[in-house]
Amino acid sequence: MVRLGFIVALIALIGILLSGLAAYRVHDQELAIDGIALARAIDVHASLVQDRLTERELLARVASGLFRAPSMVKANMLQPLRSAIYAFKTDFVVATWIARLRPNELTAAEAELKAAGFTNPQIRDFDDQPLDIKALVKPINVLMDVEPRNPETLSIPGRAFDRHSVVGPMLTKAMAEAKPVASDPIPLLRQNGPIGVALAAPVFQEGASEPAGFVTFSYELSSLMLTNDDTSLFAVALKDPRDSNDEFTANEQGVVTSRAVRQDGPLPSMVRTVTFGGRDWSLDYYAKSNATVRAQQTATIVAAIGLALTGIVCGLFGYVAYNNLRLSREIEVRIGFERRLTAVIDELNHRVKNILAVIQSIVTRTLRHGTDIDVARELLIGRIHAMSNVVTLLSESQWQGVKLKGLFESRSIPHADRIAVNGPDITVSARAAQSLSLLFFELASHSDEGLSLVGKHPHIVANWEVNGDAADAIFHFRWEEFNTSQATRRADSDFGLILLDRVAPEALGGTAKRYFTDVSYVYELTAPMDTVVDMTERDRTEQFSAPLRPVKK
């Protein structure tokens, strides 16, 4: 009996020890998994919020850059931009044109507002109080156009916002910094309207040192913060930039309100910072569930089960060992997946930002001051089409490169039927493909002018070859347009010259030259093959696309 009691006691002791160990491990693992899931969800949310803010700031920059009116004293300045601003599909509440008017322009401005059919065409203060125009000695900022036009917004034009406590400083800062500036959170449209943020982008006329006015877009905070997600692991709040003790939160209906942060209240689980309108905004994330309590409950259940099954300690031990091994592998796989997903997102953000930067450069240089709008529109559409085509080709190859001959397809290169392509079918890197696609479009788009020499269109030959071995291999590209001359060929644009002579050669780490012969126009590009192919980029992309495997024990 003593021996049996000893064995039973030993089994009970082993069961208690194993149950306690299992409960402790499960507690830690639950906390680790919940922490990883919460941190990943918060990082993804903050990244999405930043992307939305970047899109809306880009809309303001593009809209301000499209103004090309000789006079800013108009009540229909947004008319040419309506299709453009709606094409972005941003959820702005109201877009406005605020003109910076001199005192001698206010009478003409009132006449413009009256002719446009606005409810109150009188120039007045922001609160609809009368404004002594005769006493003004310097320019004021007057709202002259609004979009959308509806009964609620028709009464806004004619107001001067210089003395507004929020809009006034925003416009002053935008004028001083010459770039889009965001305001503090304010009620939109009316005093009790939805809380939002206004973004003002200054508009400069050619040769002017001060802005002629501002394009503004107003957005609700709830849509910018992405707050209406009932299934998320957290609640998000925006820290009030004017008072660190206040923050803005949204309910299930998306209504944003301000609340004071309680000193004895829960601290945010994490804080992330996003940039918008030249300012940093802090997002406080509060976990919706208590991970510690849930982990303790799970650990208690495991301990109870272990104590109840002390009679079958071997089975319990086997179960716990198997469960611990499975959970450990799942955690390792999740950690590896999260790390690789973060790297993939960072890589994708880097590539998207590079593409957006290229497109912004294309738009800025194509729509420069003094450019014929028809020619600029044709070139802009073609250049963006060339970028879109190379992105499509890269997506089809999972960003592992593009066949060089594929860049000469007729869907992206003008007059592809006149181009004789000859060269080895090499695969170039994503970065090289973007530069070469724009380069080929620029060359082809300027080859359609001449019925020269013998009255025929130019015949184009595109040749490339690779000389040398391994690390010393050199890529040679030659573009030659026969039956053309300097007098008949369309002159390269400023953007085209920069691309041909500097951007493309520098991107590939090589050199370029262009010249006319007696019967042709020639462009030559020479670059090392290791930059054209870029095996480092390809290896990194293949690593991202490889399937994830659990770590072998």
UniProtKB/TrEMBL annotation:
Enzyme Commission number(s) of this protein: 2.7.13.3
Residues spanning the membrane: 301-322
Any one GO cellular component localisation term in the record: membrane
Gene Ontology MF annotations: ATP binding; protein histidine kinase activity
Catalytic activity: ATP + protein L-histidine = ADP + protein N-phospho-L-histidine
Top-tier EC class: transferase
InterPro entries reported in the protein's UniProt record: CHASE_dom, CHASE_sf, Sig_transdc_His_kinase_HWE
Keywords linked to the UniProt accession: ATP-binding, Kinase, Membrane, Nucleotide-binding, Phosphoprotein, Transferase, Transmembrane, Transmembrane helix
UniProt-annotated location(s): Membrane
Keyword flag Transmembrane helix: yes
Lipid biosynthesis listed as a keyword: no
Start and end residues of each CHASE domain: 171-225
Pfam family, one: CHASE
Single GO BP term: signal transduction
Protein name according to UniProt: histidine kinase
SMART domains found in the cross-reference section: CHASE (SM01079), HWE_HK (SM00911)
